[in-house]
Specification:
By secondary structure, this protein is α+β, with helices and mostly antiparallel strands. It has 1 helix and 5 strands; from the N terminus they run αβββββ. The protein has a single domain, classed as Roll (SH3 type barrels), CATH 2.30.30. It has a 5-stranded antiparallel beta sheet. A hairpin with a 2-residue loop joins strand 2 and strand 3. The protein starts with a helix and ends in a 5-residue tail after the last strand.
């Protein structure tokens, strides 16, 4: 599945995504921002957030409505 996500994320670089990650303490945490690489995105505060594909629970592209 990791290589499948790699290919999908390569096509989405520069787009806005929301990604729900498994939290190490239990539960989940969400990150939202512009995908900068297949393993990182930049949030609205300008912070670069790294993630591993095996941490991902679910993700989707955020499409702005006109």
């Amino acid at each position: 599945m990791t290589s499948e996500l790699q290919g999908q994320f390569e096509a989405l670089i520069g787009r806005r995504l929301t990604i729900r990650l498994h939290d190490p303490e239990g539960g989940f945490r969400d990150i939202v921002g512009i995908l900068e690489s297949t393993h990182s995105l930049r949030n609205r505060h300008g912070q670069l957030i790294d993630f591993a594909h095996d941490e991902i629970f679910i993700w989707r592209e955020v499409i702005a409505t006109p």
